[in-house]
Structure formats: structure tokens, C-alpha cells
Amino acid sequence: MSSMPESRNESPKRLRLSREARLSQLLEVSWRLAREEGTDALTLPRLSEAAEVAKPVVYDHFGTRNGLLIALYKDFDARQTAIIDAALAACEPTLEATAGVIATSYVDCVLAQGREMPGVLAALAGSPELETVKRDYQLAFIAKCRKALATFTGPRGIEQAAFWAMLGAANALSGAAATGEITARQAKDELFETILAMVARSGR
């Protein structure tokens, strides 16, 4: 008598992802959770369930809920940096084009993330870890803008305080556009004019 054929109902083996690929998957699922269920849903057990991975895998990547939220912030900033870098490299070497790229890219990046990013920041309010990460990214963004605008500035250069004011305006305008208080076009135009005015003052 021939042996019975092996059952075809056995569960297929799961593909083992690299650590980098797993992190990308977990971040993607986290953004979806934030978008569909709100920031309160961003807990490590809920992420484990939604991503269909064991809890130790999630804890190994993020450690704590704050670790997850900070990873989302870093992910957002990394994508924002890549978009702005590519746009600056491709734009015409004029002040108007450069200012337009900075303004448009910044606002578009915030809007592309919808309301998830403000929720992440609100959840991390008062976190010393976030403040350190934010300051590093803010200083890197200011340095990027200083380099991009250096060709167009006067002999005095642009004061550091002016860049902080520009960054504050960028955050406020993008946030207002994300909540629908102003249009994206208004946010971009106002930030564009802010950058032009900042450069103009450097020539006085």
C-alpha cells in the first residue's frame, strides 16, 4: 500500500527578514496605525499584533514606546532630508529657485505625513530623548539651508537667530496647512517670502 501524501494544509514558513527590512516593515505599520487608529494605538504590543510579529521582535527594535515614537520621528526626518537634498541638487542656481525648493519641500513633507507627525510629537512632549534628537536634526537642517543660500547672502552672512526664526515659521506654517487653517500654497508662499527677507537682511 502506498504511503499517504503529505498534507498540503501545512502553514508556509515565514520569510525571515533582515533587521533593516524588519525595521522598515515595523515603521510602515506604525505609520498606518497612527493614521487609522491615532497615536494612542502606538504601543509595542499593538504594533506586534498589527505587524504579525512576536513581541520580542518589536521590543528588540524599539525597547520602549518612546523608542518607537523617536524612531518614527527619525524616519520622517530622514525622508524629509532626502527629498530636500534631491530638490536642491536639481534646482536652478538662483535665490528664487533655491528659496522655493526649501519652502515647497518642507511644507510638502509635512503634508505628506498628514496629521500623524503632530500626534507623534505631542505624545513625546517633554521627552529628553526627543529634545536631543530634534535639536540634532534642526541644526543639520539649518546648516543645509546656510550652505544652500551662502552664494546669495551679503558680506554679513545670515545670523543664526534668523535661521531659527525661519525654522519656527516653517513649522508653524506647515502645521497650519496640515490642519487646514491655511492652504498649502499659502504656507509655501509665506515661507518663501520669509527666506527671501532673511537673505535680503544679510546684505545690509
The number of distinct β-strands equals 0
Principal-axes shape call = elongated
> Largest sheet, if any?
none
**Nearest-integer average pLDDT:** 88
The proportion of strand residues reads: under 5%
Oligomer: single chain
Tally the helices.
9
What separation lies between the terminal Cα atoms?
Answer: 98 Å
H and E order:
HHHHHHHHH
Helix content: over 70%
Would you kindly provide a brief summary of this structure?
Helices cover 72% and strands 0% of the residues.
Account of the protein in words:
The protein is mostly helical and 204 residues long. The protein is built from nine helices and no strands. The chain has helices at 19-37, 44-51, 55-62, 65-90, 95-112, 116-123, 128-149, 160-178, 184-201. The protein is elongated, with a radius of gyration of 22 Å. Residues 1-13 have low confidence and may be disordered.
In terms of topology, how is this protein built?
Layout (H helix, E strand, L loop, with lengths): L18 H19 L6 H8 L3 H8 L2 H26 L4 H18 L3 H8 L4 H22 L10 H19 L5 H18 L3
Helix pairs in contact: 1-2, 2-3, 4-5, 4-6, 4-7, 5-8, 5-9, 7-8, 8-9
Notable features of this structure?
204 residues; mainly alpha; 0% strand; disordered N terminus
